[in-house]
Amino acid sequence: MPSSVSRGFSLAELLISLAIIGILATFTVPALLNAQNSTLNSKQSAMAKDVGFMVMNAYDQYRQANSGATASTKLDDLTPYMNYVSIDTTSTLDDRPGANASYDCSVTATYTCLKLHNGGTLYWKKAHTFTGTDTQYAIYFLFDPDSVLGGTGTADGPGKALNMFLYYDGHIRDWTNLLSSTVYNNGLSTGSANSSRDPAWFSGF
Hints:
The protein is of the alpha+beta class. The protein has one helix and ten strands; from the N terminus they run H-E-E-E-E-E-E-E-E-E-E. It has one domain (about 40-195). The longest helix has about 55 residues, at about 10-65.
């Protein structure tokens, strides 16, 4: 009766198997990482859109409660109508792509930062108002989806915040869709559409 003898893999067979695994990994790992990044981008973009609509609705409620808005209306006036978890006084947050800056929520005399239910943070400069009542006047605010400072360099990246604009007429726009000659930054700046100032993770309104 022949004996059963188990034979191991030869070195050549092992090397061939490892080579095949390496080739498969070359194609599958990047695809998996891209799929993960795409899913994260979609999630963060959806979060940002919800935040924009929340601010827009808060402004509508404010105008109804106060018979309209004025040139001196600021985003702090809208907080009673916003849905948020708490006021953040400790985080340091990102600015938009192309801006080598950060926002320190502990400087409460300068910034208002709101922790949101989705895990992100909404923030703006307290003193900023519309400064005018025509359709091109706006107040800008930012949304950081991960609520963490990713770095103060100007290059775009997954940590960069989205800059949004609330116009006096109630519309919300991002940099890609900014109206020509938009007046913002408390009346000190004017700007027009510039898609490079929107983070790569945002797909637009």
